[in-house]
């Protein structure tokens, strides 16, 4: 029974579902109530929407969507939503065209949200949205082109569409953007094609080309007038909206919308040309020379620079010279083309106190229609707009290796109102006010030099100069002074004796500095107290110091092992002296010397300098000290021997007799005598001064014949052979 009941319930549920499905909703094709959507203003377009079946859910929202111009739904546009027609089955709504609607195949559809479904597409229709404002081409302005130039005609819209451009009422070209590049003259207008909705026309713009004739100055290439007359130049075109720039000797004298220019009655002579600015391009005219009708028989010459700067309160002397008879001419001075009056009339020099353009006019009466007039070249005095001082440190300054320095001004450049730079004279620099800054804070220094006396004052320095409201700041100087360490040594020669040491002491240790001792470039041998370094090994020692923005090092200290061969005796350790005369013995290579008589360092000290004057034959000993090291040398003073002949045989057999080649002490032990020996092949085997009667010092083998030369002061004294007997 229970199974039977369940089957009945399942059958009823199935029937209920089928009945519900049979009455579900169906969206029908929208019905447009217009043929074409031509939207020139806020126009509403009506559409009827229908559905069948059952009601939509209460939370359903209908969306009215517009396709793109090709009827595609890739990015549909929402043109309306409906929330109150979920049980109406038939309703109508209006929509407005969105911006940039332009095309012939738009469609409408209805989309439901609950349940989700989309209607079929409506019939396609043409739709165009356009502004009703006047279409203005190029802001109502005509366009003027130069030769081979071009310009862009622009319509006052960003409307999407096809633009048909007409030149002289004939279709010229079509674009998809509201602009056109033109190079030809003519009357231009543009129409926007709105298909079934018709056309919209723009205003007209004229394009004019300034040909070679239009850009020239009317009249001849040379115009002659009297020296005190003006002249009016006129362009060949007088179109409005152009800028006419008139130039005299390549300097602009007038810029305006006027196609004419009238010169003043002074300073008017020279070469003129006209530059016309159309807004898109410029043209340059021919040159026209304006000159006097008569040629004056004299010249006027300016003295000094024509262009200068002038500071407030200064006076600049401006002078001319001329070669006319002074009794026949008058001189009139002008500033900015205005006469300076009788106060300076007929003066060759004037004092100018203000900026401006000055010149002198020299006039000689001729009794005819035109006097002889010669204007000087123009002096231009310029106001200053800014200063540019340059400062430097002393030439002896070395960064991080100098204890103090003086900052000083090298010079000052001034920027004039014309944008050019000029050097101030020393007199002009003396007029300026000075203020020194360290790290952008005033130091209180107000003269042209500033002393930086300590590493504690390290920083970035600048100098501000000012005068009458005009100022300028110098270049920056990054000053890095240092308290350079001073090293004291227990050895003046840096020579290290075996088993001893040298102590190096920093005399001026400064708080805030770090000191480091480096040996042989890499080894850090800094003691706990870097003030004192005890050296027991040879090597190169460098003291590095850092602090207050500096890192530097002293010159290396080369500690070497003491070499007693550095101690020398001159003329030699055997001194030949005639009895009854005197000789000077000189020691070198030490720091201190003590001379004694005899072969020991005892008894009376004869001398404590490097030299000893002797008058007696015998032995003398010198104690030479280098730091903690010492060495002794003994010198024998002998009288000349009576040996005349240079030995020519040698028996080096080790018996102590005739083993070495011994020559007279007139030649041996003498610093001015050179002894040279050669083997049988002529090869030099010995060349020495102060020969010590000690050759040979090595086995001669089977060699039997040698040659010798004895030379004193570049003169050959003796020469011969030496036979070796084995």
Summarize the structure.
With 726 residues, the chain is mainly beta.
**What low-confidence regions span 5 or more consecutive residues with pLDDT below 50?**
8-22
**CATH homologous superfamily of the largest domain?**
SOR catalytic domain
Distance from first to last alpha carbon: 155 Å
- Main sheet? 6 strands, mixed
Query: Per the principal axes of the C-alpha atoms, what is the gross shape?
Result: elongated
Residues in helices, as a percent range: under 10%
Count of separate structural domains: 8
Mean pLDDT: 89
Describe the structure.
The chain has 726 residues and is mainly beta. The protein has eight domains: 24-129, SOR catalytic domain (Immunoglobulin-like); 138-209, Immunoglobulins (Immunoglobulin-like), CATH 2.60.40.10; 222-292, Immunoglobulins (Immunoglobulin-like); 300-382, Immunoglobulins (Immunoglobulin-like, Sandwich); 384-479, Immunoglobulins (Immunoglobulin-like), CATH 2.60.40.10; 487-561, Immunoglobulins (Immunoglobulin-like); 564-638, Immunoglobulins (Immunoglobulin-like), CATH 2.60.40; 649-724, Immunoglobulin-like. The protein has two helices and 67 strands. The strands form 16 sheets. Strands 12, 14, 15, 17, 18 and 19 form a six-stranded mixed beta sheet that branches. Strand 38 and strand 39 form a beta hairpin. Mean pLDDT is 89; it is low at 8-22.
